[in-house]
Amino acid sequence: MAHASPAPGDEWRSPLMQDALERFSAAADALALDDELRMRLAAPRRSLAVNFPLRMDDGSYRSFAGYRVQHTLAMGPTKGGFRYAPDVSLGECAALAMWMTWKCALMRLPYGGAKGGVRCDPGTLSPSERERLTRRYAVELLPLIGADRDIPAPDLGTGEREMGWFMDSYSQHVGRSVPGIVTGKPLVLGGTATRRTATGVGVVHVIAGLLERLGSDVAGSRFVVQGFGEVGATAADRLHALGGRLLAVGDEHGATAAPDGLDVPALARFVRDGGRLADFPGGRPIAADELMSVPCDVLVPAATARQITAENVERVDCRFVVEAANGPTTPAAERALGERGVVVVPDILANAGGVTVSYFEWLESQQGAHWEDAELASRLQRRMRTALETVAAVVEQREVDWRTAAMIVAVGRVAEASRARGVYP
């Protein structure tokens, strides 16, 4: 009996990949890319799907699925985080790897994009189970990774600890210490103190630059932040320090709001001590799905993908959406926001601070060098501001929205490199 062949791209099909391809196609149309380049850039270059057993603390064994996707090799080695989450999939990794390519190109980093992860609930794993999971995942990726081939980094559910385990596992297998195999490492292993907060700090540089272009300032502006993890908490803290008013903040469990602005340092201490945002005594509790309807100047989605959708976009009440998360706004929602005059500053620009400082850390590891924190902070600010000005110039010249402008710059650079390298053999 004959079976229908899968359509091209079926391997990657997911809502997130559809969003990524829709935005790529818009940029490709604006650049008038030929069919060959569209074909080469619309699908990941390489992918690895693995299944492996893991011995649990009680002596039982469980099977875990893991992935690593490399979008393009045209720009240099690939770069991107790996995550531990229940919904990790090949399609999700493919979309995020593509976005990482555009992000690196926009920031002029010599990388193609990659992404990976293991499908699991990290909250249910003990520290020893996490360590065994990380080490086994590292070994499964040996055919693809290397300090000059593919360099992982932290993402959802992972951090410095996992990067230390990953680095050690790889180093044990090659017989020498290779600090450049990952970024986001502990400081003692060659990490940078600025990496942990880099994404949130980069978001604030973009917000400040955007407001300055419009003759405004962070001081006195009103902000709402969705997500209070590392990125959201850092952005909230820096905006508060610059005089911004954080009117509301929330996560999947609930939210808190204060019309005159929240005391962000007190809120951060409350959460660090185990408190829930909705229980913060300095604000009033609101439902998580009410957060985006709080009127503000800048909404900062800093949680997960596809948070602003066609179903809730009418409740969004702001002048600007600055995407601190990857893919938080669906294309349909973004079109609706544009019709209302709301400016969306895309993730490939707004949250590029993390990969930029990862690049600095990688350079230090490769060269055996060390830069002071002040130097790294200055380099990050210059990179973010330069990218912002580059995108703003395209917005004005082509009279397009900010995402289209950012994608035109990024896709154009990758297409140029791909064209220059040709097709082998």
TrEMBL record:
The active site is at K115 (proton donor). The record marks D155 as: Important for catalysis. Pfam families: ELFV_dehydrog, ELFV_dehydrog_N. InterPro entries: Aminoacid_DH-like_N_sf (IPR046346), Glu/Leu/Phe/Val/Trp_DH (IPR006095), Glu/Leu/Phe/Val/Trp_DH_C (IPR006096), Glu/Leu/Phe/Val/Trp_DH_dimer (IPR006097), Glu/Leu/Phe/Val_DH_AS (IPR033524), Glu_DH (IPR014362), NAD(P)-bd_dom_sf (IPR036291), NAD_bind_Glu_DH (IPR033922). Residues 192-422 form the Glutamate/phenylalanine/leucine/valine/L-tryptophan dehydrogenase C-terminal domain. Substrate binds at K79, K103, S358. Keywords: NAD, Nucleotide-binding, Oxidoreductase. One of its GO terms (biological process) is L-glutamate catabolic process. SMART domains: ELFV_dehydrog (SM00839). NAD(+) binds at T199. GO terms for molecular function: glutamate dehydrogenase (NAD+) activity; nucleotide binding. Belongs to the Glu/Leu/Phe/Val dehydrogenases family. This is Glutamate dehydrogenase. It comes from Conexibacter arvalis.
